[in-house]
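Design job #97: recover the sequence.
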């Protein structure tokens, strides 16, 4: 007899909330999304992305998760851009309800034709961007050990007070008290039935395990990290950024390269400086290979793709564009992600024109656009000893290496 098929794991991320207590600012332009001031906290900018992107990326990085349903508000205009950046075929969406409980139910209904009754469903808060792979693995270990459900939780370690009219009314015994976190994982059919039964009875549950308790199913508590915080107040963004930076390390390096052929013209642009020359370059923008290589190095250090992804040569808006505009936007991304440039080492590869007379102007220009002293920009030049297309005078190239540090 063949072994039974393994129970698949699905994820539901309720992201339809308004986050009134949060008062998030507009999403930064560097996040490639558009939001009015007061955007929901799941779309607040966090280290070069939105909060919900961090939360979802943690789930998508887990290979056992078969699909992720993100439940959004019916008037959400930001999600399409976020989904496009995540670009994962496992992503799908559903429209939320009047509260978190209703939104999770709608997410489960979205899976009706896809999930088997005994498949696992993992529910994770959109505003918990710091969940770790180790926590997810611990949940799966609990399920593999035979648990009927599992909830990440952290024991209460502080003294707990009960308040009345702004004063301490009593000290609560904290023995056996835990703070429920997410993800929380239960069987698909059982979770959907428990949530729908609670809703039908007019009972508002604050998490999935409460609905399962009403149905007589007690989940296993899986110790989670105290750093798995839920963003509730504006200042929580700074805490989340520090946690994520500590996971990734504070130093980042990146490298970039670009090349262009010579064509008709009377100048070339390098490092934002116009240099007279009997030929121009063939390019969609101004063909500044030095800035293009630098942008690629910075984006690589940030883990945000490459220059062609953000400024495609198929976009008419970039025809003849000043490459300094690209660099300034990349610099904004760098600052939004919480990094600054330690130094950049740049090399121009060309038989001609001569670079030495223009080095200082290039360093000053690049430093101004990056918001750093020009001393952090080192520019070198070399020939290829008449070898290759550069040596034959058919074009020029540049390469860049950068070091970033968390601010």
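Job complete. Output follows.
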């Amino acid at each position: 007899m063949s072994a039974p098929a393994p129970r698949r794991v699905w994820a539901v991320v309720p992201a339809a909330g308004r986050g009134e207590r949060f008062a998030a600012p507009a999403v930064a332009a560097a996040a490639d999304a558009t939001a009015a001031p007061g955007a929901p906290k799941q779309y607040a900018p966090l280290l070069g992305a939105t909060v919900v992107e961090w939360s979802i990326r943690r789930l998508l990085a887990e290979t056992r998760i078969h699909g992720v349903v993100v439940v959004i508000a019916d008037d959400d205009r930001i999600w399409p851009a976020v989904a496009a950046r995540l670009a994962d075929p496992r992503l799908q969406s559903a429209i939320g309800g009047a509260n978190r409980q209703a939104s999770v139910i709608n997410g489960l209904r979205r899976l009706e034709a896809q999930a088997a009754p005994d498949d696992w469903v993992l529910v994770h808060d959109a505003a918990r961007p710091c969940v770790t792979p180790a926590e997810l693995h611990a949940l799966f270990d609990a399920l593999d050990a035979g648990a009927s459900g599992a909830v990440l939780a952290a024991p209460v370690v502080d003294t707990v007070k009960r308040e009345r009219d702004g004063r301490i009314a009593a000290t609560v015994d904290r023995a056996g008290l835990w703070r429920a976190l997410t993800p929380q994982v239960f069987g698909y059919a059982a979770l959907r039935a428990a949530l729908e039964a609670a809703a039908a009875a007019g009972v508002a549950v604050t998490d999935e395990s409460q609905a399962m308790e009403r149905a007589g199913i007690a989940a296993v508590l899986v110790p989670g990290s105290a750093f798995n915080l839920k963003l509730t107040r504006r200042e929580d963004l700074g805490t989340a950024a520090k946690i994520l930076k500590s996971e990734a390390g504070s130093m980042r390096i990146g490298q970039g390269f670009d090349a262009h052929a010579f064509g008709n013209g009377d100048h070339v642009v390098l490092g934002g400086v116009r240099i007279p020359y009997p030929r121009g370059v063939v390019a969609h923008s101004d063909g500044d290979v030095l800035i293009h290589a630098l942008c690629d190095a910075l984006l690589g250090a940030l883990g945000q793709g490459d220059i062609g992804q953000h400024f495609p040569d198929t976009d008419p808006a970039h025809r003849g564009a000043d490459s300094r505009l690209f660099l300034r936007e990349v610099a904004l991304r760098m600052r939004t992600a919480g990094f600054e440039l330690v130094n950049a080492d740049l090399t121009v590869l060309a038989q001609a024109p001569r670079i030495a007379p223009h080095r200082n102007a290039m360093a000053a220009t690049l430093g101004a656009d990056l918001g750093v002293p020009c001393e952090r920009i080192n520019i070198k030049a070399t020939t290829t000893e008449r070898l290759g297309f550069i040596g034959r005078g058919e074009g020029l190239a540049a390469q860049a290496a950068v070091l970033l540090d968390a601010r």
